[in-house]
Each structure stands twice: as C-alpha cells, then as structure tokens.
Fold these 2 entries.
Entry 1:
Amino acid sequence: MNFSIITPIYNHAHYFDRYLMSIIKQLGPEDEIILIDDASTDNLKDVLEDTKKIWYKKMVVVRNISKISGPSYCRNLGINISKNNWIKFLDADDQLAPDALKNLSPFLSEPGVYIGWQQTGNAQYPPALGVIDHVNPFVPSMTCIHKSILEEVNGFDSKIYFEEDWDLWLRIRERFTDRIFHQVNVLVDIFNDNVKERSERDRFRSHEVNGQDVREYIKEKYDL
C-alpha cells in the first residue's frame, strides 16, 4: 500500500516542522510527500529548500506558482504528478495522526473514498456523511482516496476557492453513488485551528462563483 501525501501551502513556514515530523516516520519506501507552495510570501521557500536537502528522496516540491491559485488548483497539481494510487490529503497547519497510514491500510481493499476521524483539541469527531446534502460533511485532511476516483471526476474544480471539497464529494457521489464513501474508525487528522490565520488565508479565497454565493452555486448545481 503506497501513499502520496498532498499538501497545498500558503505562508505556513512556522508550522512546517510540526507537519513534517507527524508524517516522516510513517512513510514506507515508496511513499511520497508532495508540497505545492501557493505563492507564499513568508520564508517557506527557504524552509522547503533546507528540508528537501535532508528528505529529498521523499519530497516533491512545486514552487512554480506566481500568484495565489487556491487549494483546488494546488491539489490538482499534486494529483497529476503523484506516483502512487492512494492519495492522502493533509493541510499544512494540521498533523497526521500517529500510525494513521498503518491503521488505514487494512481498510483500503478497493478503490473508494475512505474517511477517518479528526481530532480538534481534546475531542475527536467522525465524518458526518448524513448531512452531505446540506453542508460539507468532512474536510480533505480526513480522507484517503484512490487516485482513479479523482481522475474519473477530473479532481477539484479549480474555479472554486471555498467549499471546493464539498463540491468534489457531491461530484464523486453523482458519478459513483453513496457506496463509494467508506467511514473508517481510524484517527487520521489532528486539526490545529487558528482563527486569525484562517481568516487571513480566506481573505484571498473568493466565496463566489460566477458572481453567485458558492454555497448557493453548489446547491443549485446538484439540485439540493
């Protein structure tokens, strides 16, 4: 079971060591980390260059983005260059839960979308698949997805900068039905919520698509 961990990064140099240390000891010989720098303005470039000197066999770094392009574009870049069949998304300010890849592996018997639990503070939360018609039920960092599924639906919609993951889950369901989603009793993501930094990041993420509120756009698109 080989994994490609895909992470878009914008101005998260100060979190990078914590992020990397949560992953590196879990990687198998063929696993890889794909990092897409979304036009960061902090010292991330230097951090990535220094880190890659040590972990060059495990890391693929993409820095050829001249302007902020959004998480959809960045994740699609990562999917396109990934060499493995199992895609594990992880946000740069999160941590991969201990033994997450080892604990996930027994469940990955067939192509699908496998969703684990997320820890926020001292609490742990499962995905909320039952609310998918009303709100986004889980975030990419909670998922491990077979690459063929993502390729079949052409990945994330790059014109959507906000709630892009909700749009992807609905498009996958539309193509494959609910049976493609598998909830697994594995803690996979440790979410580190920083409201101030999230607000700063979201400042560059449009909440509209073609002049329409993104949530209304998604509801209308999928007749919800």
Entry 2:
Amino acid sequence: MAIPDAILKKPGPLSPKEWEVIRRHPALGYGLVRDVKLVPEVGNIILYHHERYDGKGYPKGLAGGTIPLEARIFAVADTLDAVTSHRPYRAPRDFRAARRELTDGKGGSSTPRSSTSSAAWTSRSGEDPVRDDAPRAAARGLPASAARPKAS
C-alpha cells in the first residue's frame, strides 16, 4: 500500500531511502482506516504486521507479547505468501521453505507460538501447496488460472 511500483518491482536490493518508503506503508495504511468504523483489530493488523518478535520491526519497534495477536497471526500468513510468491529479485520458493522460515524464526520475525502452530498445521495436513496447483484450484471451484505456476 502506497509503495511505488518502481520500489515493489525492483529486481535488486533496495537503497536506504527506498527502505524508508517501505517502512512507512503500515502507518499510511492505518491512516486510511483509522476513522472508518472497523473493529480495532483490523487497524492493529495493518499497523503492526511488520513488527518483529525480537523488537527490530517497524513502525513502532514492538516486541514479544506487546505485538497484538491478530498482527502476529497475520504476519505468519504474510510470510507464507512472501516466501511462496514470485518476487522480481527471486523465484517463488516452495511451502517447505516457508515452513522453515517460520519455524527457524529467521531474523527474529517469527512469533514462537504462531510459527509453531502453523508448522504443526502444515505437518498434520500433509499439504504442500506446490505451485502446479490446478487440480486443487478446480476442486475449490476456481478456474485453472487461479492456480499459481510451478516453482522452478
């Protein structure tokens, strides 16, 4: 939200100035919804979804249990999406890589409880949504175009 495509689609590393723009997006998003009559948790998700369990996140630098639960849960989903989606600077990675990133707590971003819960769910479900997912998309009543391309 509010990030220029030139930054979002940049194929290489971001400059310090570009990182400043990236780090503003939670506060900008929150500013758009704060006066809308939504449940407070929606604003918490938008504002705090880039906070890190180790306190090195943004925009407020919250740590541990001070990060609202709904934002910590959303951060797990956001990590899953980020790891398994195409980025201009890298190909999508598989579900196992996302699980490793969540359970390893790479960079202190993962919440131990939410990451462990997501890893337990993926282990129990046996699902590994590899990118050639057309049969699953069809089973859900979605067109084949809703399936993501197979990761390389």
